[in-house]
Model the fold of this input.
Amino acid sequence: MMRLAPFTYLAPRSLAEAADLLAEHGAAAMVVAGGTDLFPNMKRRQQEPRVVIGLRAVPELRSIRVGEDGTMRVGAMTTLRETATDPLLRERYGSLATAASLVSTPHLRHMGTIGGNICLDTRCTYYDQTYHWRKSIDFCMKKDGDICWVAPGSSRCWAVSSSDSAPVTVALGARLRLVSAAGERLVDAADLFRDDGIDYLTRRPDEILTEVVLPAVQLSGTAPLRNTYWKLRRRGSFDFPILSVAVALRSDDGVVRDVRIVLGAVGSSPVVATAAAARLEGQRPEPELIEEVAGLAWRGARPLDNTDLNYAWRKRMARVYVRRALRDAVGLPPSEPAVDRSVA
Ligand SMILES: Cc1cc2nc3c(=O)[nH]c(=O)nc-3n(C[C@H](O)[C@H](O)[C@H](O)COP(=O)(O)OP(=O)(O)OC[C@H]3O[C@@H](n4cnc5c(N)ncnc54)[C@H](O)[C@@H]3O)c2cc1C
Ligand code: SF4
Done:
């Protein structure tokens, strides 16, 4: 049985207290939300905080509310189950509700939070192992070692961003509120994620993610927001994504506007398919054009041999999943017989 190493657990009762504690304990501390990722990582000695600051008793982090400007604000401690089942979220931001509903199992969705999901550690076959397994290969550069076993000549880590909600927040153009003892800032979701398997977030260690701010679905004078999320995984019952596609766009009298196509689980950060989106922008989404756009989008997928299933096949499936997601978003019928949203 894997045991946790000794650590000090602190349970602040307010956001200000949590931020002060994080500032006080510095690099020795980490925050925990649902603990579904952090505690297994601590058992495997992948992460070794001496102080763990629990956010469960911080009431201001757990709410879903609509702002006066029409934005929707989801507190970081909102559970995945709440995110998946909230009626307004499902109606307006179906992609986020779907992503949350496809994370793991009901037990984990009851414990796991949207904030923890966004800040989820990157994953790799050579890293998500017990301490003794990792020691037997002399570790790797993400923790305790010097080499990358996926790309031994590489000076960087290629661990994979495997969060279901991360690509969705980028596609939706969400902003994320980060609070520290020194103040607060609002960052675009696209700017939170960094293409680096080790230093994968631009969040400072003393910052707490407090809320996800989703843009108003219908700004006056603009077309309604349409959005969707498609996930590929080995088992439909539960598994991390090995490929995912998030799409958000506005359809204005049959013409596509403000389109964002974002791939997940094919790099160390969500991959924005900029050229593909530009090709679709301002066009009518005819099936031939969707096919061409899918062909442009999959080029950005760079899966390596460090997650489940064959990486060349995962790259090919990127084209298929982009096509499925785009047809779904623009309201075209599926191009193939009905498929389970979670399996190929
Ligand atoms: C068997 C299994 C299957 C899983 N399947 C999936 C899956 O399919 N898809 C998926 O996306 N995930 C999956 N996960 C990972 C995890 O359960 C989820 O990502 C979950 O949402 C993590 O949320 P949490 O609240 O438990 O995070 P925690 O474990 O509490 O924290 C995760 C990380 O985020 C940081 N953190 C948490 N909250 C904040 C905050 N407010 N501010 C700053 N930093 C914060 C923590 O310090 C830690 O580094 C799986 C896990 C397991 C064990
Ligand atoms: S990509 Fe390389 S350095 Fe990163 S976790 Fe995997 S083996 Fe380690």
